[in-house]
Design goal:
single chain
Length: 82
């Protein structure tokens, strides 16, 4: 789930960014629900779990579970596609 916090840029000469672009393409193909998409967006903006939970008016454990669920769904989608 560590890579989930990165967002791709337009620098396609950067190898790491190319990995992040591939990850974003995979995320786009993954069936994430609205809550998971909101958590991912806030996570990528640099917010910590506690702050995300405050922003979404929920509790930290739910946000942590959502991040773990996102990582699992993306991993499963990667296995399906590749």
């Amino acid at each position: 789930d560590g890579l989930l916090s990165f967002t791709p840029s337009d620098d396609y000469q950067d190898d790491f960014n190319c990995i992040v672009v591939d990850l974003q393409n995979l995320i786009d193909k993954t069936d994430l629900d609205e809550f998971e998409l909101n958590v991912l967006e806030l996570h990528r903006s640099g917010m910590r779990v506690y702050n995300i939970s405050q922003e979404l008016n929920t509790y930290s454990d739910k946000v942590t579970r959502a991040i773990n669920r996102i990582a699992k769904k993306v991993s499963q989608k990667a296995k399906e596609l590749y």
